[in-house]
Write a structure and sequence with these properties.
Number of strands: 9
Radius of gyration: 15 Å
Shape: globular
Order of helices and strands: HEEEEEEEEE
Helix content: 10-25%
Number of domains: 1
């Protein structure tokens, strides 16, 4: 039962990560690939703070709770096809349950339920490769299951 729940969670996270990464519309941008932020405000409800041009790919990150790692994919901006990022999957804490990318697209955070920690990574905005932030993983409360990031309000 627990492994079935884990597969369901993984499937849901994968779909959500893909949808979030594909949601950057035809707004401005510098033409560089970048991870699409989660939960970023911007124009209207549910819009993405840093909109990507239609021809620029984003990245999708998937918490693999049974494997204790995070898979990374480049998203083809035209077809939606996922291609594994070099070096993926990346090590995480025990039982990673969710991934969130900060609004700048420079950092990813993973809630690790079993190890009561949060893994932090810098994102190579060209390749999507994750590099662990010094001091990571960081202590969290017992059984963190979900994580989100916000932008600082000026």
């Amino acid at each position: 039962m627990n492994s079935q729940l884990g597969l369901v969670r993984l499937s849901i996270l994968f779909v959500l990560a893909t949808l979030v990464a594909c949601s950057g519309g035809g707004g401005g941008g510098d033409g560089a690939s970048a991870a699409v932020p989660n939960g970023a405000g911007g124009g209207g409800g549910g819009s993405v703070l840093a909109q990507l041009p239609n021809n620029v790919a984003g990245f999708a990150y998937v918490a693999n709770n049974a494997s204790d790692n995070v898979s990374a994919y480049t998203i083809d901006a035209t077809t939606g096809v996922l291609s594994e990022v070099a070096g993926s999957p990346f090590a995480a804490g025990t039982d990673p349950s969710s991934v969130s990318v900060d609004p700048s697209g420079k950092f990813a955070y993973v809630a690790n339920a079993q190890s009561a920690s949060v893994s932090a990574y810098s994102i190579n905005t060209t390749t999507g490769v994750l590099s662990e932030v010094p001091g990571s993983p960081f202590d969290a409360g017992a059984g963190p299951f979900s994580i989100t990031t916000t932008r600082k309000i000026q």
